[in-house]
Amino acid sequence: MGISVRDEGRKVNSNINVTPMVDVMLVLLIIFMVITPMLQNKVQIDMARVDNPVNMPDADKEDAIVVAITRDGSVFLGQNRVALAELGGKVRDRLADTPGKTIYIRADSRSQYRAVEDAIDAVRTAGVEDVGLLVQRREPGSVLTGGD
Fold first, then answer.
1. Residue 148 domain-assigned?
2. 3-state SS assignment for residue 45
3. 80 FRET partner, CA 20 to 30 A, in 11, 23, 33, 68?
4. 145 lies in a domain?
5. Residue 148: pLDDT over 50
6. Structural domain span for residue 108
7. The whole model's pTM is what?
């Protein structure tokens, strides 16, 4: 009588199949590449550049109220376009639960001064005490041109 020896240990494959993991990672990469530009909640504006801006870290917070004025004079409250006549009322509605909050103005460097002034007046008549004007730091060595 002979002993039968099972030799299954030699057939075990100890290599890890990474193909499914690579597929999942590529799908996630594509999803993040498509979604990331959509997450930017700012209106595209070429802000004025200055040498010594004051840091306003509260402007980047989720609950910050930002009014944007584009080159053509359009006014945006966050991502939503609003008429200048409605701006004060909408700001007042947003400030109903948190009075005394700073409102931030992002104006295009080529927008008309009158449009920016009207937006600030509308915000101030809504009862806002503090208004911050957002600008960008000028890069060292940049030359002042007519567009800046």
1. no
2. coil
3. 33
4. no
5. no
6. 49-137
7. 0.65
